C-alpha cells in the first residue's frame, strides 16, 4: 500500500527514527515503525485486521471518513483514504480491498 503524509513535519516524525524516539519515546517509536511496516506491506486496506493488535476501525461523528489503528494506548495512527473513494456496499461500507493508498493525518489520542 502507498502511504502519504499530511505534511512534511508529520512525515519526519513518522519516518526519522531519531526524531520518532525524541518525540514519542522508544516504545512508541517501535510500535509506530511496526504499524507503518504493516501498512506498507499490505496489498490493500483489507489486509489490515479490525481485531487486535492493529484494531483498524472507521471513526464516527466529526471524524467520519477517518480511520484509526492502535499504537501504544491511548495513541492512534489516524488516516484517510488517499485513493478515489472505493465502491461502497450497503451493509459493510467501503470495499477495503480497493484501498491501495492512505494519507496519515495525525497521531493522537482520539478519546
Can you describe this structure in just a few lines?
The chain is built from 3 helices and 7 strands. By secondary structure, the chain is α+β, with helices and mostly antiparallel strands. It has a single domain, classed as RelE-like (YaeB-like fold), CATH 3.30.2310.20.
Descriptive terms for the model:
111 residues; YaeB-like fold; five-stranded mixed beta sheet; 3 helices; 29% helix
Describe this structure in words.
With 111 residues, the chain is α+β, with helices and mostly antiparallel strands. The chain has a single domain (2-109), classed as 2-Layer Sandwich (YaeB-like fold), CATH 3.30.2310.20. Helices cover 29% and strands 28% of the residues. It has three helices and seven strands; from the N terminus they run βαααββββββ. It has helices spanning 8-15, 17-24, 26-41, and strands spanning 2-5, 57-58, 66-70, 75-81, 88-89, 93-94, 101-109. A five-stranded mixed β-sheet has the order 1-7-4-3-2. A two-stranded antiparallel ribbon has the order 5-6. Strand 2 (57-58) and strand 3 (66-70) form a beta hairpin. Helix 1 (8-15) packs across helix 2 (17-24) and helix 2 crosses helix 3. The protein starts with a strand and ends with a strand.
Amino acid at each position: 500500500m502507498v502511504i502519504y503524509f499530511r505534511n512534511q513535519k508529520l512525515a519526519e516524525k513518522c519516518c526519522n527514527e531519531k526524531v520518532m524516539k525524541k518525540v514519542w519515546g522508544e516504545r512508541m517509536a517501535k510500535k509506530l515503525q511496526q504499524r507503518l511496516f504493516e501498512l506498507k506491506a499490505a496489498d490493500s486496506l483489507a489486509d489490515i485486521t479490525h481485531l487486535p493488535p492493529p484494531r483498524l476501525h472507521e471513526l464516527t461523528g466529526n471524524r467520519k471518513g477517518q480511520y484509526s489503528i492502535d499504537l501504544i494506548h491511548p495513541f492512534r495512527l489516524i488516516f484517510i483514504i488517499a485513493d478515489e473513494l472505493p465502491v461502497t456496499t450497503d451493509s459493510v461500507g467501503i470495499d477495503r480491498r480497493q484501498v491501495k493508498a492512505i494519507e496519515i493525518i495525525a497521531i493522537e489520542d482520539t478519546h
